[in-house]
Amino acid sequence: MTLLSEILDYNKTFIDEKLYEAYTTTKFPDKRLVILTCMDTRLIELLHKAMNMKNGDVKVVKNAGAILTHPFGSIMRSLLIAVYELQADEVYVIGHHDCGMSLLNGEQMLDKMTKRGIPNETLDIINNSGIDLNQWLQGFDSVEESVAHSVDMIRNHPLMANDVPVHGLVIDPETGKLDLVIDGYKR
User: Within 13 Å and on the Cβ side, how many CA atoms surround 163?
Assistant: First the structure.
């Protein structure tokens, strides 16, 4: 049995037994906030429990490292939609210690791509189009500095309302302890 088959079999049971009813809520976040955080598997439940959040309380946007790399990319668009269309009044950027993006090496990742069949010609075409793949795939040295950078990009975005506090925190993926990096109320 494949993983997909297992998931679909369980989903049928989930629907048949109406287990979804425990998660019924609206599309609007009850606590009126949106979180940009990392896609790390350790945070799936821990982050919400450590913040006293339940299903329906928050909007969550995830990517590798909770990094905002482009002011007009899909991450920023999602944050703006959460604020303007989905009633989020605050933004939280939450990175974590022991992040896979910490010290990620772009050259090593490009090497892994070629070993898995991505032709060097493809990488050359992309690099020659003005995209520096090595830089694009590079990680960060300090999670606190990375969080502060993302907070700064959001706070200073020309389309973000000035009255929206943008906070920066770092969570310990072992204990759930939150460390404040930037208090958005003290703008």
Answer: 4
